[in-house]
Amino acid sequence: MTDPQNPASHHESAADPSLSDAEIEIAPASGHGARRAVLRGLGVVLPPLLTIVVLIWAWSAIENRVLIPVEGGIRYLMVLGFADIRHSVPKDAVLDTSEDVTGAKKRPGFTYQSVTYVPGPTGRHYLPAYVVREVDDHADAFGASSLPPKTAAAYWDRYYQLHYMPRWIVVPVFLILFISLLYFLGRAFTGGIGRWFVSTFDATILRIPIVNKVYGSVKQITDFAFDDRQIEFNRVVAIQYPREGIWSLGFVTGNGMREISEAAGEPMLSVLMPTSPMPMTGFTVTVRRSEAIDLELTIDEAIQFVVSCGVVVPPQQRVESTLKELPSKPASGLSTTART
């Protein structure tokens, strides 16, 4: 309300409508610009960020499911075959009764063949003092949350990890061996007995209820992404499918069948029509060669277009003009007077 005794408030109320109109005009523009800036920032940041996240997830899966179990198994075999763990004091050993060597009052350590042995954490076994000293001095190398060894075998396990299997050696060796294994498996299963074995294994798994659904879907994805497919895409074309006026992208896979070409009276093309957003599924159509338009697209660019549902358009195919600038075709059935 306006105070009749205060003329300044009267002028302020008179100016309010113009100010509110300006705010209404400016606020949407500034908000729209901020939203576009945020979306552009996400467009720049998300691709490398998601790539890094996927790579980290893949490495974590390989490390937790393959590397760590293999590494632990190798150390277990090393402890089982080479660890110097004694269950009792040898006859020729010299007992050491000093507490500063053993650190325990239950059973003393001893020296045998110039090697000093101390009781393990359980007190039932003996192991060399240098192993205990080395592991205890480098306890931080195993992480702040790691628990101290509970047995003599656990001490030897960490000792082997420190001296013979540090991570900076294990990871490169593991990657070389892992890639080499994949290479030899790929060569072994590409033909002959290997291909028969893979086919038999796939057929057996696909007969198991519930499991066959998951395995079949995963196999389709992996076959499309990693397999050396027999289907070779020659080029990318656009055809009017499923009806005239609707253009769809397809991959040319061959020249079609002879009988179809003879019936049509002209050369035909076999075209794989991928589906969005999963191009590893689709269907095959046979069209006249004259009805297919060759596009200036690589196979990878076409796949990106299909996966993104048309959002990712290659630079050479982008339409820079707005919809208002594009030529429009008048609808059929409208008179010239109605169009004007």
Main sheet: strands, sense, barrel:
5 strands, antiparallel
Sheet with the most strands: spatial strand order = 8-7-6-5-9
Class computed from helices, strands and strand pairing: alpha+beta
Helix residue percentage = 40-55%
Mean pLDDT rating: 80
User: What distance separates the N and C termini?
Assistant: 51 Å
Task: Describe what is shown at a glance.
This protein is an alpha+beta fold and 340 residues long. The protein has helices at residues 7-82, 99-102, 129-137, 152-163, 167-188, 193-205, 211-226, 258-264, 299-307, 336-339; strands at residues 94-96, 109-112, 115-119, 126-128, 236-240, 247-254, 268-274, 282-288, 293-294.
Helices and strands in order:
Blueprint: H1 7-82, E1 94-96, H2 99-102, E2 109-112, E3 115-119, E4 126-128, H3 129-137, H4 152-163, H5 167-188, H6 193-205, H7 211-226, E5 236-240, E6 247-254, H8 258-264, E7 268-274, E8 282-288, E9 293-294, H9 299-307, H10 336-339
Antiparallel strand pairs: 1-2, 2-3, 3-4, 5-6, 5-9, 6-7, 7-8
Helix pairs in contact: 1-4, 3-4
Structure commentary:
There is one protein chain. The relative contact order is 0.04. The protein is α+β, with helices and mostly antiparallel strands and 340 residues long. It starts with 6 loop residues before the first helix and ends with a helix. It has helices at 7-82, 99-102, 129-137, 152-163, 167-188, 193-205, 211-226, 258-264, 299-307, 336-339; strands spanning 94-96, 109-112, 115-119, 126-128, 236-240, 247-254, 268-274, 282-288, 293-294. Among the domains are: 84-167, no CATH class; 171-226, no CATH class; 236-315, no CATH class. 51% of the residues lie in helices and 13% in strands. β7 and β8 (282-288) form a beta hairpin. Residues 1-20, 321-340 are annotated as: Disordered. It holds the Pfam family DUF502.
